[in-house]
């Protein structure tokens, strides 16, 4: 009965168009009234405590870094470097998109920011060279979701804070799976684009390549600084967000000089707006998370999946299917905030490593960004390309299947996640 009340109070208001943050509070209040615990002070206290977290300070700084990266020329230089290296080969613009997505993922940690940058910079080039618009848009959307997987990742920060898991370990665990997804996209693009007739950009000379590489060095240093700093304990993930924001501001304003002081206020406001949405969701989710624990909702769910508790692979597959279904109707941030406190006790009871599960969970949520009807990244690409959603879905389908195959492999072979973490921890 508890689960029914919680889901009804959450999904009912959402179906009526109530914002998810308020639906989370409504579901929490409904549970409180059912349990006879209603107190407005408890609601207010949990909302305040939900946002009062030092690790969450990384979110606004990485959001700011992403905005500065797109405005200050870092994104464009990464794309230029990829163009100089692989743009001339057959299907090269697609490989440029994947390569650029991996580098940009290590700068911003946001799929939406990467999708906006890749769509604006690369989609016109791909259409001009003769690529199918739907297929090109589908590749850009699919490549953009590498953003929350390769560190720094806002998704990992939220999961780590809500689930009480080491964010540093999550960051390091996301590197190899993110590269696996990039490799799967490369293979898929090679297959689906081989029959296309398109114009190839001219091959760049060695001198041009070297000049482009040198010009992009300042942008490429940022992921190196973050990963090396985290591995050797120079700074925490929260401090890494500060480093990323300050470094990107310095490079954009002093080195590249593409971010004039007059635009700085606009960039700060844009980052603040996105941050406020995320932080308000986090604060409101604390109410329902507290009630989920008090009402022992995880215990009720654990009883339902008890037959799978002895088989970690089957349990993970069942959870991944559930998250895929939820991801079609809910955005990434609320899914993490709602499902993490529900699933974490079950994961621990089954003896599954929370870091390993976190990687699978965030990959699954990232895939949800390119599944309709919500599909935030799809909406971004549609807005940039003026494509219809049904056309873009046709283009994204082969890449979506490839990413689901990678997720399935990671479920079957946990060492693909755990082994790199062990290596980084040395």
UniProtKB/TrEMBL annotation:
One of its GO terms (cellular component) is plasma membrane. Keywords: Cell inner membrane, Cell membrane, Membrane, Transmembrane, Transmembrane helix, Transport. Residues 8-416 form the TRAP C4-dicarboxylate transport system permease DctM subunit domain. Pfam families: DctM. It is a multi-pass membrane protein. One of its GO terms (molecular function) is transmembrane transporter activity. It comes from the Bacteria. The complex comprises the extracytoplasmic solute receptor protein and the two transmembrane proteins. NCBIfam families: dctM. PANTHER family: 2,3-DIKETO-L-GULONATE TRAP TRANSPORTER LARGE PERMEASE PROTEIN YIAN, SIALIC ACID TRAP TRANSPORTER PERMEASE PROTEIN SIAT-RELATED. Part of the tripartite ATP-independent periplasmic (TRAP) transport system. This is TRAP transporter large permease protein. It comes from Ensifer canadensis.
